[in-house]
Inverse folding.
């Protein structure tokens, strides 16, 4: 059975950028709801329970399961692993270390150019979803947004940065001001 991973910081640790109430609801209600629904699917497939959700998402199409359950696993498994990863980059220092900074500079020309492209892509994403920096299967950096709870693990990529673009991530404090939320997110992603 999947359980809510430990949050390594207090709900108010990201104030004033991400408020305590949003953190509490996001973690204890939204993330928990994905886990609850994920567990309902996994209960039907004991043979899948020995593998990580990341691994299952990576071979989702080849799993022997009811097509409706496959969609549920994609949505709620993605919802779980996406949030589990998201908390780690908000809570730790040095989400972007010297090595990653060098790779970003090599790939995008400069950190400022990377930040601009990442922000612009996030802003232009329509509807619920996520903005990602990933290491793809060819071990190259790649940035893109995904709809809903689609996870980079679906395409064999490893997330490096994640920005939750669902309104539940920011609506209490920022309402329709998505750009302000993204600016605030840059403040809580620890860079060096
Ligand atoms: Mn979320």
């Amino acid at each position: 059975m999947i359980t809510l991973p430990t949050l390594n910081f207090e709900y108010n640790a990201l104030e004033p950028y991400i408020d305590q109430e949003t953190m509490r609801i996001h973690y204890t209600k939204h993330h928990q709801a994905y886990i609850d629904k994920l567990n309902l699917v996994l209960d039907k497939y004991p043979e899948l329970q020995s593998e990580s959700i990341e691994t299952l998402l990576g071979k989702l199409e080849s799993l022997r399961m009811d097509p409706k359950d496959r969609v549920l696993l994609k949505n709620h498994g993605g919802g779980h692993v996406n949030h589990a990863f998201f908390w780690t980059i908000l809570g730790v220092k040095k989400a972007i270390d010297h090595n990653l900074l060098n790779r970003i500079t090599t790939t995008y020309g400069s950190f400022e150019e990377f930040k601009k492209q990442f922000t612009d892509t996030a802003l232009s994403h329509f509807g619920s979803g996520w903005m990602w920096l990933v290491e793809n299967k060819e071990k190259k950096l790649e940035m893109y947004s995904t709809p809903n709870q689609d996870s980079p693990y679906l395409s064999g990529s490893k997330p490096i940065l994640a920005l939750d673009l669902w309104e539940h991530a920011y609506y209490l404090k920022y309402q329709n001001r998505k750009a302000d939320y993204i600016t605030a997110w840059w403040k809580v992603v620890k860079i060096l």
Notes: Helices lie at 20-42, 53-58, 67-91, 98-108, 111-124, 171-174, 178-188.
